[in-house]
Amino acid sequence: MNTQTPEVVESEFPMRALLAGSRRKEAALLQLARKLVLAESPSDDKAAVDACVAIATDAGRSLDGRIKLHRQRKYGDVLEVRFGPRWKSKSSLRRPVLLLGHLDTVRPIGTLRQMPCRIADGRLWGPGTLDMKVGVAMALTAVEILAEAELLNREMILLLNSDEEIGSPVSRPITEKLAHECEAVFVLEPAQGLAYKTARKGTGNWRIEIRGVAAHAGVDFEKGASALLELGRVMETVSGWTDLKRGLTVSVGVAGGGTKTNVIPAEAFAEVDVRIAKIADGPRIERKFASLEAVDKRCSLAINGGINRPPMERTRGTVKLCERAQMLAAELGIELKEASTGGASDGNFTSALGIPTLDGMGAVGEGAHASHESVLLEHLAPRTALLAGMLAKSS
């Protein structure tokens, strides 16, 4: 890694003023972040996630945000907050920018007892800090800084869902509808190291169930049709679809079957993870799974699944956003790089719609979904200033 600090680039855009504003508000940002972290919010606990959403709602309302709650029955509510002048389709104002985040976490209630929210060693620690409650606090702070600097010159939409960690089953259509209104989408997921994310792989999951014919392994061996043997053939077949040059991987993560060693197994199953880097590979891999057939015709296959998030490809529009961010970062003496990742986010949905999407614009840290999840405080103010700058100068 190049550790040299790049030369500060001077321009007419007030990045230094935005950085000063971020530093002034860092304590308040951390206070809001800690409130969000202390409101534990596992995806499968609607009441808990809604309590966390309520904190973000109050924060948005305090900044004169126009609040809309998309009520949900099974999962937590989805929060939409609009800031700045209202945009209309025939208006001379620039189209809105969408800030995209989530408030649900992968951690169950009670995790704070083992992973207390605390500041130590230059970090904010705790479940959901990096992924991605600090990023949410950064976005709200960036809007506040712009308002005070009289740079809130376009409509900005903050959308926070409660089901991202489980695939966004109810929030996806809301995200896609709002994205169509917008000129660009900024995703508040954590940075990749110190880099913004310009590409993500798409994801898919399949479950393959095989039914064979049970028989005594010693007395009636020839009458049996082993579901496990058939599963082995299937696993070898699907694993062979991996194409690293295309960024396509097929991984059998869970498999099982059988009951006893002296019984030819009548049932077996496998659960498969698929990652794709190219949108065109989605339909192709779905057709391949649908065409699977048993070699032993006494066995039958039941196949369920599909691509649930399209890939976020490195498009020209996304590259332009990243180049603009790099220019603004240089004004703060920051060398900003871009990266790609095999993990997915809600930015995959908006990018697949053809809307320029830049990801990884949240906090810098490490340990997402792990016991050492934490955010590096030294990057908090500069990254918040950079986010504010991008909101004000994204076209």
From TrEMBL:
Matches recorded under SUPFAM superfamilies: Bacterial exopeptidase dimerisation domain, Zn-dependent exopeptidases
Pfam families for the chain: M20_dimer, Peptidase_M20
Single annotated GO MF: hydrolase activity
Positions annotated as active site in the UniProt record: 104, 164 (proton acceptor)
Domain Peptidase M20 dimerisation: 198-291
Keywords per UniProt: Hydrolase, Metal-binding
Keyword Transmembrane (UniProt): no
Organism: Telmatobacter sp. DSM 110680
Record bears the keyword Cytoplasm: no
Name used for this protein in its record: M20 family metallopeptidase
CDD domains (UniProt xref): M20_CPDG2 (cd03885)
